[in-house]
Amino acid sequence: MPGTTTTAPAPPPAKAKPRKKATAPAGASARGRVDREGAVVLIAELFREYGYHGTSYGQITEATGLGKGSLYNYFPDGKEGMTRAVLAHVHGWFEDHVFAPLEGDAEAAKAVAGMFKAVDDYFHSGRRICLLGAFSLYDARDAFDREIAGYFTRWVAALKTCLRRGGVAADKAGMLAMACMVDIQGGLVMAQALDRPAVFRDTLKRSRLSLDVALEAVA
Q1: Long-range Cβ contacts of 209-213 (<8 Å, 24+ apart)
Q2: Per-chain mean pLDDT for the chain
Q3: Which terminus of the chain, N or C, has fewer Cβ atoms within 10 Å?
Q4: What is the 3-state secondary structure (H, E, C) of 44-92?
């Protein structure tokens, strides 16, 4: 009508996007059912996000799509068994991609470079926490102290072996290996605390430089 104004109707509110359910394609069977390895991967990510005590069975069944019966079949010892499987999975990855290559026949400097590349990839350049490091600080240390200590001891020993192979004296190699471990874990904590992944990458560069300098000095 003359002299009146019309306004367009307001658009309907946007629908909230449903939360995506975690999936593990590599751990699914041909029929789409998550197998034990796939369940371990998914449970590990829950532990990273919520912690050991903060992760509920409800979250585990939702993430894996497995009922309590299937979970019990895979993990007869319950949540403790799940956690030991997760820690073994993490240790196995590092054994294949970090520890064994450090102790192999490759030139020490190349093995060190490979270690830092694998570490950066695994921790998503500082965007992913170290599960064993988190467990060691709180949450589940008492229950899994042997697995946690074994992981870090193995890493320090493998790096020391690599540096010794490159000609670095035993005492210095041990000191450098431990300092590198402190750098990696500290860099991860600070990257998460400050929400600045670049802190982790910068820490890796500085730590690698100290190892490279030590190797070059005895070359």
Answers
A1: 210/176, 210/179, 210/180, 211/112, 211/163, 211/176, 211/180, 212/109, 212/112
A2: 87
A3: N
A4: HHHHHHHCCCCCCHHHHHHHHCCCHHHHHHHCCCHHHHHHHHHHHHHHH
